[in-house]
Design goal:
alpha/beta, single chain, 205 residues
């Protein structure tokens, strides 16, 4: 099994990384392979709704989004980490996720998703909710912990002084590992849930 971790912070070894790395160590204990992508310092533009991905099978902007797409398809779980800016996720990360989820047509249902957020003080739960919406729109079960998946720290490295936040990350990783393994067993014994043809409606007709 494999988990793809997305570091949405501009700082490669900042507080978001500390949270994700704490999870990495638990995944290793659970026999789960991990790969971490650092996207927060990349030049990633937002989606322009050109819909070229429908015909091309990939985003028209050939950058890290297209590099990450096959890794996303192959993984069993996705962890997205972000610092908090104005009670929201890093804008570069949001641009990356918008295009990654929209431009990929493979079935994402039953891949396990988890978001983790780091902040000095406030805006954590708003950012946590924002990131979880990427999972819930495409049938990805969301892993939870003993608290909202957040950790505190302002200066790089300060998150290491938040024992409750670190414990929350470890618990999240264990719960996520259990959920992925349970889904794999369920798929083998029962198969995946039946899917209906999508039904799209508009409010303006």
């Amino acid at each position: 099994m494999k988990v793809l971790l997305i570091n949405g912070s501009p700082h490669a070894k900042g507080n978001t990384y500390i949270a994700l790395h704490e999870m990495e160590e638990i995944f290793a204990q659970e026999g789960i392979e991990t790969e971490m992508l650092h996207v927060g310092n990349k030049d990633i533009r937002g989606c322009i709704s050109c819909n070229s991905c429908f015909s091309k099978g990939k985003c028209v902007f050939d950058d890290l989004v297209n590099e990450a797409a096959p890794k996303f398809e192959e993984c069993d779980g996705l962890v997205v980490g972000s610092p908090v800016y104005y009670a929201s996720a890093n804008a570069t990360l949001i641009a990356f996720l918008d295009r990654l989820f929209y431009s990929t047509s493979f079935d994402k249902s039953m891949k396990v998703g988890a978001s983790v957020v780091a902040a000095r003080r406030g805006g954590l739960s708003a950012t946590f909710d924002e990131l979880n919406k990427y999972f819930t729109i495409c049938g990805m079960p969301v892993a939870s912990s003993q608290y909202w998946n957040s950790i505190h720290g302002r200066e790089p490295g300060e998150a290491a002084w938040d024992p409750e936040g670190l414990q929350t990350m470890r618990t999240l990783a264990r719960n996520m590992a259990f959920l992925m393994k349970s889904i794999a067993l369920g798929r083998e014994k029962y198969g995946l849930p039946e899917k209906e043809e999508p039904c799209f409606t508009n409010f303006v007709r």
